[in-house]
Amino acid sequence: MFYVKWIPHSVVLSPVHFGPKLYSTITRLVESSVEGTALSHYGYIIRVLEVPEDRMRGGVIEYDSGEVTYEVEYKALVFRPFKNEVVDSVVVDVNQLGFFAHLGPLRIFVSQHLFPSDVNGIEGGGFDGNSWVSEDGVVAIREGVGVRLAIIGATVEEGNITAVGTINEDFLGLIDVGEGEGM
Amino acid sequence: MDNDTTDASTLAFGSLFPPPTSASSESDPILSVAEVYTITNHFINSSNDDDANDVLKKVHAYGRRFHGMGMSGISTAVQFEQLNNMLQDLRDVLLKKAFVSNTTGEELRLHEYEASKLMDLMSTTSTSDEAKCLIPSLKKFTDGQVEEYLELVKKAKLKISDIS
């Protein structure tokens, strides 16, 4: 889910940064430290949209170092997956265990146990070395195709978010066969 | 991450999006993929390759492929502005449209998440069955009410696809 959120952040500055460009320095530091990272509560910080001056509180001096900590609030475009959220994604890797798909920076694994039974080989179809193919040959899940899946779980490790999904529900599965092919 | 308590199918998003306490309370905007695409396109075009972080580039590429608005011919700044206005109009009309529950008599409106998912996942031929299956929280509406929302999405998508 993509959303816009005000997020609190602490910026530590050494006295060399004080002066007329303090505000732009704080803004630049916020952007460089959070953009592109994954925060455990909020998700991926895609882009900082605003760091308004009226949401910066006055700095507190750290007596040991002489540095100053500013508490700021920035507005950001954020992405975070939620359980039971249905999303579209592009398949990037297919193997005997299932496939990996990407939704922007998010990597999602779908196990072959969570495929429809006419694709995972139980009632037909199966893995042909490059793709998972349905019994009737109409559906072929291979690298580069678009897939609609439901997220069934997500975890965060060292600033990276991964998720697990399923395509074994109605209206899920293959949606397009490659870049430029519409839904 | 509060994995144990969040569930998009029941609109339970934890402390990030607590349930509204009044009809007039505002919540942080939840965006559709198309809206995100217009935002990332602005930042990608106004920066050089070194400034755009990898996550921004990946989200932009994702938005270009999965915006679901049939707007492959849109490339200029004017067209993107026109698109942005149409997406905002669609969001406004979806969020403002209200119904009265047949069972409880309470007013029913779309949650921001539901509106964004209707914009993302529904095509011009989608049915209320598909909508309720992919967005389970829509089950509070009748099929006819969901069809009215789908009609709004369909009209907007047809209009957007005419942008050239």
UniProtKB/TrEMBL annotation, chain A:
GO terms for biological process: positive regulation of nuclear-transcribed mRNA poly(A) tail shortening; positive regulation of translational initiation; transcription initiation at RNA polymerase II promoter. Keywords: DNA-directed RNA polymerase, Nucleus, Transcription. Residues 81-159 form the S1 motif domain. It is found in: Nucleus. It comes from the Eukaryota. Pfam families: S1 (PF00575). GO terms for molecular function: single-stranded DNA binding; single-stranded RNA binding; translation initiation factor binding. InterPro entries: NA-bd_OB-fold (IPR012340), RNA_pol_Rpb7-like_N_sf (IPR036898), Rpb7-like (IPR045113), S1_domain (IPR003029). The keyword Nucleus applies. Gene3D superfamilies: Nucleic acid-binding proteins, RNA polymerase Rpb7-like, N-terminal domain. One of its GO terms (cellular component) is P-body. Belongs to the eukaryotic RPB7/RPC8 RNA polymerase subunit family. This is S1 motif domain-containing protein. It comes from Triparma columacea.
From TrEMBL, chain B:
This is RNA polymerase Rpb4/RPC9 core domain-containing protein. Residues 1-26 are annotated as: Disordered. GO terms for molecular function: nucleotide binding. It comes from the Eukaryota.
